[in-house]
């Protein structure tokens, strides 16, 4: 299940990058490229709102998938879960001849 969630996170990151790169940092973006035609073309006036909503949606999807992916991780199995050899016991050194 982890590989599927990882692929979904990566896909959402690519889409988020698209939304971020298409926006102009001063608020122009696609809206500024149409200029005075904003009243003639349907929906162009709302392009900034769509990009902002898409950005926030992708951020929340990535955050949610990251939180969900934690539920599918499993603890390592075995006699020693913390990786130290101290809990396994010590052996005596070999006798010299």
Terminus-to-terminus distance? 57 Å
Q: Assign the structural class, choosing from mainly alpha, mainly beta, alpha/beta, alpha+beta, or little secondary structure.
A: mainly alpha
Rg estimate, integer Å? 27 Å
Q: What share of the residues does DSSP label as strand, in percent?
A: under 5%
Question: How would a textbook summarize the main sheet?
Answer: none
Count the helices. How many? 3
Low-pLDDT windows of residues: 36-41
Q: How confident overall, as mean pLDDT?
A: 76
The ordered H/E elements are: HHH
Number of strands: 0
Share of helical residues: 40-55%
Tell me, briefly, the overall form.
Answer: rod-shaped
Structure notes:
- This protein is mainly α and 97 residues long.
- It has a domain at 1-15 and 49-69.
- It is built from 3 helices and no strands.
- Helix 1 (2-22) runs antiparallel to helix 3 (47-70).
- The longest helix has 24 residues, at 47-70.
- The radius of gyration is 27 Å and the shape is rod-shaped.
- Mean pLDDT is 76; it is low at 36-41.
Summary of the model, kept short:
By secondary structure, the chain is an all-alpha fold. 53% of the residues lie in helices and 0% in strands. The longest helix has 24 residues, at 47-70.
Write the SSE topology.
Blueprint: H1 2-22, H2 29-34, H3 47-70
Helix pairs in contact: 1-3
